Amino acid sequence: MNDAMDHLLHVVMNGRVIGDIQRSGKRKMRLRYEDLSAGRFTPLSVSMPGPSGRYREAVLLPWLEGLLPDRPEMLRQWRRRFGVADDTGPFSLLRHVGEDVAGAAQFVHPDRLQTVLGGHGDLDDLDGVEVAEMLRRAKADLPVSVKEGANGKFSLAGAQAKIALHRSDRGWSDPSGTVPSTHIVKPPIPGMPDQDLVEAVTLRTAAGLGLRVARCAIEEFDDERGIVVTRYDRIQRPDGRWQRVHQEDVCQALAVWPGRKYESQGGPGAATIADLVYRASSRPEQDARRFAQALVFNWLTCGTDGHARNFSLMLSGEDVRLAPLYDLNSHLAYSDGSGNDLSMRVNGSFRAADVSLDDWARFAARLRVDSDWLRDEITRQSDGLLDAMARSAKSDDVARYDSAAVARLLTNTEAWVERLAL
User: Taking the CA of residue 356 as centre, how many other CA atoms within 13 Å lie in the half-sphere pointing to its CB?
Assistant: First the structure.
């Protein structure tokens, strides 16, 4: 195999090459955009806006790292499977798993470029037993594909086990090539009983309060169960085919390494993200409010994992918007909120119970929103929270399990909101 080709990845968005990444050393590389002056151009990142110029590893490496899972054992399994050394960075793994990642970009080895540009892809139909086996393998940090020698398999960021599948009228399939995954399936987090149910209730509660969130459902696959999340970075075209939509998480947008996703680890805090949203968004006032709404919701539900990687931007040409919310989980199913810290400080405080209405009012300017609007928003959400959560818990796919964790969530949320003295 040509050694030069092993140091090159083409960057393809929806059937068009937008650039390439060339590696010149283990952790030395550059991104070069193609001349796309005659057509619509969507950059990889607001941190690499293009359309001309070259971007080096200082910004490119953390962005690529953000496409990979946070699970060290899974990364070790991948490196073992693909014969990749531990110290070669994300480029070497994306050669094997870069054709279906978050967003619209596909990272394609030169040997497969014509296949991808030609629109070739496969759908291997799966039954419930096979999906269950994929979920078990994901939980065990093993390669999940049900077929050997699969090219261009998916990579999903984050610490939780998950798989990416394609859903159509004929059922579930394992996609490859140009065919994108359409849904993410996540089993419950070990040690947190019925966490999948809690996540579904939390997401739907946010939706019931008018926040934009990813759609979800609870489904069973043989002897495994999980939350099925419809990917907001995929859309179905009028001809029935699916198209990737570009997105990046906030760490990628700020060229921050994914391992620093928590503010307590030196990662982006709420004010930094609010500044990014206001600077990058095509609708800055609206998206600043949407971000502030999400922070308030995490506080009211004791959502302790609302770190920077759980917020994303959607990019389409020159248009940039805050993405729908995802990975919302209330910790009140497992605690009464005492001693719980938020992922981002509010007016200097991580401790959720220590944050007051006055803290939010003083913090409003840092969030790029009006303090009176923020007070009204807190009142609006707190007034509607319990009803929205109760309705979400009564959804058929949740209520059928009569979950003790969901019951605790409802009881503890009521006590928590009373404790906040809103």
Answer: 3
